[in-house]
Design brief:
Elements (H helix, E strand, L loop, with lengths): L2 E5 L2 E3 L5 E8 L8 E6 L6 E6 L5 E4 L7 E6 L4 E6 L8 E7 L9 E5 L2
Parallel strand pairs: 2-10
Antiparallel strand pairs: 1-3, 3-8, 4-5, 4-9, 5-6, 7-8, 9-10
């Protein structure tokens, strides 16, 4: 079945960087638009970024433009989220999935704090 495994989260100081990974399985990864979402405590899940099957960035949320970038490696069935200049407001559980579908992995927690 369709599965996603997110990894790479952790505790980082404001201004720091993290690289999240999303390992996908159970479907033909290279044919789907993929996306990163996040959910902060007490808030709804929101779309962060999405990428086309060929690796073109389709969407970057306003709140991450200039700081985050999304990429993918179709040979490895893996998607990435490079997060730079992290802010406390970026603290959330980050999930990956196919764009527009409500199936995600267990998520990876990113905490930005000094």
């Amino acid at each position: 079945q369709v599965q996603f495994v997110e990894s790479g989260g952790g505790l980082v100081q404001p201004g720091g960087s993290l690289r999240l990974s999303c390992a996908a399985s159970g479907f033909t990864f290279r044919t789907y638009e993929m996306a990163w979402y996040r959910q902060a405590l007490g808030r709804e899940r929101e779309l962060v970024a999405s990428i086309s099957p060929a690796g073109v960035i389709r969407y970057l949320a306003t709140f991450v433009k200039g700081r985050f970038t999304i990429s993918r490696d179709n040979a490895k069935n893996t998607m990435y989220l490079q997060m730079n200049s992290l802010e406390p407001e970026d603290t959330a559980v980050y999930y990956c999935g196919r764009r527009g579908e409500e199936v995600w992995g267990q998520g990876t927690l990113v905490t930005v704090s000094s």
